[in-house]
Amino acid sequence: MLKFDFVYLLEQIPKLVPYLDITFLVLILTLFFGTILGFILAAWKLGIRPILSKLAYAFTTAMRCTPSIVLLFLVYYGLPALASIFAFDLNDLSKLFFVVTAFSLSFGNVMSEIIRSSYLAVEKGQYEAAVSVGLTRFDAFRRIILPQAAVVALPNIINSILTLLKEGSLAYTIGLIDVMGKANLLIAMNYEAHALETLLALSFIYWSISIIIEKANELLEQRLSKGRTFVKTV
Amino acid sequence: MLEVREIRKAFGNQEVLSGISFSIEKGDVAVILGPSGSGKTTLLRCLEFFEQADSGEVLFDDIDVDLRNVTKEQIKAIRQKTAFVFQNYNLFNNKTALENVLEGLVIGRKIPKKEAEAIAKEALDKVGLSDKYAYYPSQLSGGQQQRVGIARAIALSPEIIFFDEPTSALDPELIGEVLATMKKIAKEGTTMLVVTHEMSFAQDVANKIIFMDGGSIVEEGTPRQIFTEPKEERTRQFLKRMLPEYTYYI
Q1: pLDDT in tens, B207-216
Q2: Which terminus of chain A, N or C, has less C-beta within 10 A?
C-alpha cells in the first residue's frame, strides 16, 4: 500500500473543480424542473379533484419506493425503450437529459410533500381574512400564505437540495462526467493508486459546497422569519 | 340595508341553518345570541361567503344574490361592503399591525400608499394602538391583536361589520378592552352584526337581538323585549343560564 500523500490530494482538487459545472448544471436544472413539478403535484394533492389527487399520491408512493439509482437506470434505459414504441428515437439525446429527468421526478416528488405540508401549516383563517379585505385569491396566496409557508419549508428545501447535490454523483453511473465522474476517472487512470487521496479531495469539494448552502439557509431563514417568535425556555 | 331570506345550509346530512330570515337597517347594532351549535357562526360565514349556503337570498342595498348560484362578481361586491372580525383574530402573522390594516386598503381597494397609511393610522389610533404600529401580531396580547382586527375592519369603512365571537378566545381580563372598542365604534353609528356570548354587550349596546337555536331564529326583538319579557320558553331558559355569568362592565 502506498503512503498517504497529502500533496497529491491537493493536486487533485484543481483537476476536479472544472467539472463542477456539470454538477451544478444537473443541480440547477433539476431544481428548476423539480420545483415546477412539485408545485403541480402539491396543487393536485390539495385540490378538489379526486382523480388528480389520487394520481399525485400514487406518484409519491412510487417515487418513495424506488431507489435513486434504480430510477436513474429506469429512465436511462426505459425512456428510450418507451419512446421507440411511439417511433421516437431518444438514443442520441445527451446523458444530461436522462439524469435531469430522473432527478427532477424524485426531487419534484419531495418538493410536492414539502410544499403541501408547509401550505397546511399556515392557518386557513388568514386566507379568509385576506379575501374578506378584498385581496384576490392569488394575492392572498402570494402575499400572505406563501411568505409564511416559505419559512416553514426552507429547512426542508435546503435539506433536499443537499441530498440532491450528493445524489447527483450517481450520474457517473450512466457515464455523465461531473465532478464525481472525473474523480472516478482519475482513480482509474492511476490504476487505483492514491484512490483515497482523490476521494478525499472530492469530499472536500462536496463539503465546501454543502457548507455554503447551509450558511445561505441560515441567512435566508433570518430574513424570511419576520414576525415569528420562538418559545424560549430557561 | 341588509336583508336575508331563507338561508339554508347543511354539512352532509346535518342541517345547520334551516331557513333563516332577518333584516338589518343602517345604524343597527344587532346581536345574535344562542347556544353553541345553533348555527350563529355558520350564518355569519355564509354572509361573507366563507361557506357556500345551499339556498336562500341576500339583498344588500341594490345587490340581489341568489345563494344557489352566486357569481364571483357578487361575492366581490358584497365583500366590498362588509368587513369581518374573527374569533381567532386571523391577523396576517408576517405583517406588522400597520401593514395588517394597510393590506386591504392598498392591495384590496387600490388606495394610494400615502393616503392609505393615514387611514390605517387613524383606525389604529381609534382602537387605542397608536403606539403599536410596528409590532408584529406575535408581539401583541390577544386583546391588542383583536383590536388590530377591528382596526383592519373599520379602516375599510364598510357598510356593516360582522363580528364572529370576537371575545371568545380572550382571557377574561382582556375582554373588556375589546368590548369597549366595539362599543365605541357602535356609538359612532357603525352598523354591526355581532355573534357573542357577552350579555352585557347585548343588553347595553345592541338595539336588536336575534335569538337562534337549532339552526333557526326562535325570536327577535329589542334588548328590553328579549331580556325582560321573552316570549319563547327556549329563550327564557337560555337567558337564565347566561345572565348570572356577566361580570364585565363596559
Answers
A1: 999 999 989 9
A2: C
Measured between beta carbons, the chain B residues lying within 8 angstroms of A143 are 103, 107
- For chain A, helix (H) and strand (E) counts, in that order, are 11, 0
Do B104 and A126 form a contact (C-beta atoms < 8 A)?
A: no
Going from N- to C-terminal start, the domains of chain A cover: 6-225
Cβ A129–B84 below 8 Å, yes or no?
yes
Cβ atoms A42, A118 nearer than 8 A:
no
CA distance B175 to chain A (A): 21
Beta bridge partners of B7: B20
Helix (H, G, I), strand (E, B) or coil at B6: strand
Q: What is the pTM of this model?
A: 0.81
Task: Report the share of chain B in percent with pLDDT over 90.
Answer: 70
Distance, in Å, from the CA atom of B77 to the CA atom of B159, rounded to the nearest integer, reads: 12
Contacts of B71 (CB under 8 A, 6+ apart): none
Nearest C-alpha neighbor of B22 from the set B205, B158, B160? B160
Distance from CA of A222 to the nearest CA of B (A): 13
Chain B's closest residue to A126, CA to CA, is B90
Taking each helix axis from N to C end, the angle separating B113-126 and B142-155, rounded to the nearest 10 degrees, works out to 130
Grid coordinates representing B65 are 344574490
Q: List residues in chain B touching A: CB distance below 8 A.
A: 48, 50, 76, 79-80, 82-84, 86, 88, 90-96, 103-104, 107-109, 136-139, 152, 156
pLDDT in tens, B103-142: 999 999 999 999 999 999 999 999 999 999 999 999 999 9
CATH superfamily of the domain spanning A6-225: MetI-like (1.10.3720.10)
> CA-nearest residue of chain A to B140?
A227
Cα(B28)–Cα(B186) distance, integer angstroms: 9
